[in-house]
Design a protein that fits this description.
This protein folds into three domains: 7-116, no CATH class; 123-217; 240-418, Glycogen Phosphorylase B (Rossmann fold, 3-Layer(aba) Sandwich), CATH 3.40.50.2000. The chain is 25% helix and 21% strand. It has helices spanning 19-33, 134-150, 160-169, 212-217, 259-269, 305-314, 324-331, 389-392, 396-418, and strands spanning 7-10, 49-51, 57-60, 68-74, 80-86, 89-93, 101-107, 110-116, 123-127, 153-157, 174-175, 183-188, 240-243, 273-276, 282-285, 288-291, 297-298, 318-320, 336-339, 354-355. The longest helix is centred in the C-terminal third of the chain and has 23 residues, at 396-418. By secondary structure, it is of the alpha/beta class. 38% of the residues are buried.
Length: 419
């Protein structure tokens, strides 16, 4: 794209950022999203090309000594973001999320081109990160809604581990490994945060994950989280509980000494089989270790998530962290006990069985002042006695008390269903 004409980035917001910081953001977004180099959209004007595959991208050709007057704005509000005479340039918007674009081009005062953003009947590409489970579960329903609302053909790249489930749950979406050259627009589906601000209208740490799709796709309402159904009947006859003691980083774990062992002992004493469904048997980073509790049954391994859904759908409940497995359990309709310290209570999906100690340090992930380039370390109390206290000071008694309340609720639910 930049080989023929130089690229010029323009901003839609009035907020002023240092040029060096803008350059850093854009390079980070490029690395994360791998945008196409070529502008796909041809127009009736020779040399003018327009698409929305890395924000708005508009190529203005050379016209000898003449220039074209380009006006780029918002079709709904009438705001104008760019209004200049230009030639031999590729204009690229800094913002990469949904905006109702309006593009008008004039030559010597006469309008020669006008385009209002409208993906109806076009292909739109939605790209998810390669590994994130929770983000995908929270945001995928927004893709389905966007396709229905705009009447477009949605091509979707999701993590390979979720593809089979997604295809079964959203049969009208086309799941693929790459975008097509006829793609009209692309959206990068992620909980954008910190230096990745161009991907969404605001820092993702300021918004519940279940609402982040509104900031990326301009959806005017909240769309319910994905619901995944099992594709096999129940195989374990006894009452059982699934647990997940690991997360993407050890600092997200529950580090109360002996906590998991105490919970497993309690559950087994209550008559449940306790099944650990983490991918790895053990994960560690420096002094932090997350490993399967000794009393739990080892169902760890790089097992297809469809099989995890089949386990979770019939489990009495799931006990986990602020991680992808908790989102998977939630999507499977399994009651979730979430043990978490690093986020604020509104960030993940709502569960009445969230376990958090509000009398200690907590919620650092949602502090937009924190630089999360190194997310493995405690940002407030690194290398002090208070390090990771958000999870270390959640006691096993607190978790067990929540489990007892959950069991009472399930018992009452069973009584009502029998009536």
């Amino acid at each position: 794209m930049a080989g023929k004409y130089p690229v010029r980035v323009f901003k839609c917001s009035n907020e002023e950022y240092p040029r060096s910081l803008m350059a850093e953001w854009l390079e980070a977004v490029k690395k994360e999203t791998s945008p196409p180099e070529m502008i796909f959209g041809e127009t009736d004007i020779e040399g003018v090309r327009l698409d929305f595959n890395f924000g708005l991208r508009l190529q203005i050709p050379a016209l000898g000594d003449d220039t074209l007057h380009v006006v780029i704005g918002n079709a709904e509000s009438g705001e104008v973001y760019f209004d200049e005479e230009v030639s031999r340039v590729v204009l690229v918007s800094f913002e990469k999320y949904f905006l109702p674009w309006q593009v008008d081009i004039f030559y010597h005062g006469t309008q020669i081109f006008s385009h209002t953003f409208n993906p109806e009947g076009h292909e739109v590409f939605f790209k998810f990160p390669k590994t994130t489970i929770g983000d995908t579960i929270a945001l995928l329903p927004y893709v389905d809604d966007f396709a229905k609302r705009w009447g477009c053909s949605a091509r979707v790249l999701v993590p390979e581990s979720l593809r089979e489930i997604a295809e079964r749950s959203y049969p009208k979406l086309f799941f693929t490994d790459s975008m097509d050259k006829s793609t009209y627009a692309t959206y990068y589906m992620n909980v954008w945060m910190d230096i990745y601000m161009p991907g969404a209208a605001h820092d993702g740490r300021m918004t519940p994950m279940e609402q982040m799709g509104r900031a990326i796709l301009g959806t005017p309402y909240t769309v319910c989280t994905a619901k995944f159904r099992p594709n096999k009947p129940r195989t374990i006859r006894e009452p059982y509980v699934c647990i997940g003691v690991q997360a993407s980083s050890p600092w997200k774990g529950w580090h109360y000494p002996g906590g998991w062992d105490a919970v497993v002992d309690y559950l087994k004493g209550a008559g449940y089989r306790v099944i650990c469904i983490d991918r790895d048997y053990e994960v560690f980073d420096k002094e932090l270790i997350m490993k399967i509790p000794e009393g739990a049954e080892d169902f760890t391994g790089n097992i297809p998530l469809t099989e995890r859904i089949n386990l979770l759908a019939y489990a009495e409940f799931f006990i986990g962290l602020g991680s992808g497995l908790s989102w998977l359990a939630y999507a499977a309709g399994c009651p979730v006990v979430m043990i978490v310290g690093f986020t604020l209570p509104w960030f993940e999906f709502d569960t009445p069985y969230r376990v958090q100690n509000y009398l200690t340090c907590y919620g650092c992930f949602n502090d937009v002042r924190v630089d999360y380039k190194d997310v493995k370390n405690c940002p407030y109390h690194k290398n002090t006695d208070s390090q990771y206290e958000c999870s270390r000071l959640i006691t096993s008694d607190q978790v067990i008390s929540t489990l007892e309340r959950l069991r009472r609720d399930l018992s009452r639910k069973g009584e009502f269903s029998q009536e």
